[in-house]
Specification:
Blueprint (H helix, E strand, L loop, with lengths): L1 H5 L10 H10 L5 E4 L7 H11 L4 E5 L4 H9 L4 E4 L4 H12 L11 E4 L2 E4 L4 E4 L2 E3 L3 H12 L7 H9 L9 H12 L10 E4 L3 E4 L7
Parallel strand pairs: 1-2, 2-3
Antiparallel strand pairs: 4-5, 5-6, 6-7, 8-9
Length: 213
């Protein structure tokens, strides 16, 4: 907290999960840094409670560095994570990254259509066959970046950099997890793709299923 305050952030701290939820409801912040090791309730439960009432970026601080634990916190709604121990500079960089909203999609093309998939960038809505699809902020950004380059292969590094605004770590599974969520909501999977196709060793592309051989 002292380091972040010294870098110009206005910082509030809470000692327990219940105290944090109350504080967040009374005065929602721009970003939340959530330590999973809380004295009164599991941090993942706090994350789920937070996600049910607020849509603010959440960075999870955890000592758990195994893939399953990271997937669990992402699945619960975290936007990013830092592994303990971490420096104040690293945390500040993560905060600045999640606060840089939006994608590089050209705003002069507010609606993109690919087959039966319609992506409205200005309203941040997605529909498939006329039915609205509920996407998280990161899921929408991934789809919007791919749609802006429809038919082209977008490298994993570029996709991650445009959505998360930072370099992709070699062992980071964050992008894979979010891609799987997007595919599921589009009614497909990596094994049976319709719109989103992985080009092994190159990247990911989105195509009109009607134009796929």
């Amino acid at each position: 907290a002292r380091v972040l305050a010294g870098k110009g952030h206005e910082v509030r701290t809470s000692a327990t999960g219940h105290e944090a939820i109350q504080s967040l409801l009374e005065d929602p912040p721009d970003v939340v840094v959530l330590d999973l090791g809380l004295p009164d309730v599991d941090g993942v439960d706090v994350l789920r409670m937070l996600r049910s009432v607020l849509d603010v970026p959440v960075i999870v601080a955890t000592a758990r560095d195994d893939e399953e634990s990271i997937v669990n916190v992402l699945d619960a709604g975290a936007d990013d994570h830092v592994i303990k121990p971490f420096s104040g500079d690293q945390l500040d960089a993560r905060i600045r990254a999640v606060l840089r909203r939006g994608t590089t999609v050209v705003e002069t093309v507010p609606v993109m259509t690919i087959g039966a998939l319609e992506i409205d960038v200005s309203r941040r809505t997605v529909s498939l066959d006329g039915d609205q699809i509920d996407l998280s902020r990161k899921e929408f950004d991934i789809l919007a970046v791919l749609a802006a380059h429809a038919g082209e292969v977008v490298s994993r590094d570029r996709l991650y950099a445009e959505v998360w605004r930072q370099p992709l770590g070699g062992g980071d599974k964050t992008l894979d997890v979010h891609l799987s969520w997007v595919r599921r909501k589009l009614g497909e999977s990596a094994r049976e793709p319709r719109y989103i196709h992985t080009v092994r060793g190159v990247g990911v592309k989105i195509v009109d299923p009607a134009e796929t051989p």
